[in-house]
Amino acid sequence: MLDAVIFFIVILEQSLLTYSWGNSIMNHHENKFPSSMHIAWAVTPRCNLYSLHDPYRRRDCSILRDELTDQELLKLAADIASVKPQAVTLGGGEPLLRMSVVYDIVYLLAHQGIKVALSTNGSLLAGETARRLASAGIDRVQVSLDGAMPDTHDRLNHRQGCYDRAVLALQSLYSNGIEAAVSFCPTKINLEEFDDFVYLAFSLYCKKVLIQPLLSNYSFYQKQELALDVDEYHGLAEKILEHNNTFYPDMQIEWDDPFSQYPGMENLGKTYYEIMADGFLSLSTFLPLSLGNVKKHSFSTYWRSGLAQVRRLPIVKELIQSIDGVNVLRGLYPLSAYRPVDFIKIDIIEDIGRLDDIHLCDFYEEPLIKAAEPHSSYSNSEAV
Q: By CB atoms within 10 Å of each CB, which of 124, 126, 157, 277 scores lowest?
């Protein structure tokens, strides 16, 4: 399985994806904010579906209990606006479960010149919701759709009728002049529908198709029957290239992996941060490391205290090294930020005097990564 993933990465990196990174990260001592900052912000861990893309699927009770209040969310939005990031993506869980405060957040950020996107399963988006988001100034909405056929998407999300609601949501986005993107998680269940799925996205006026890997998490770790093998990854890579180069020139298909930014991350020109539903600040929802909590100190205070430099900390470098960049975490190992017992919490403000002395070995007695077990055969009865 690991060979399959590495093979797919090589194909896409060489043939499909191009990245243009700057030469340095803004020095925090200059007290300036980089226009290239992107923030992913989970406004709730709750979800009304069982989506493949939901990082909070385990429903850790502490996260549910400690999610930010409406007042705290609005205060954080104002603070983020003062930092002037290039873009903020609101997600979850399902962000539209907190619809009222989401409208206010979008309005506040958009009217400060910040690009605001929303990642949703689409079940609550159609009609008046789309109109209000357009009025608030939303820039783009990404809807999860994991099949070209209703039965496939409904099966993977454990809810009958969610395919129809996702399609209706995409139609509402177009009707209200909102740029639409759609995400697709390839599995053994939906792979044969990929061509039809791409055509469906095109017919629904989507500007971008994001192919998201089946990432490691606790509930699907025992269901690797869903994951693709090397031949299936090879075929998918070829189809992505073919679609991009031939059939749909006005719609871009991209491999959207949250770990693709990490190799060489200390030299990236773009800076990415994630704010979790309970306020923890991280480089990624899928890395077992937090850098602080916005309930304790404001995001702007963390920035002024050296947030831009954390990629150079020993523990961050060691963690990235231990997971082999993008190659290991793609659906292979149960590492994630769901508050497992090995979740590492540091605070770059409160631990300021000892940050260079914090190492991975202080938290883990054994290496994080173990040898991958053989990939088991697929069974329809066990897959979902």
A: 124
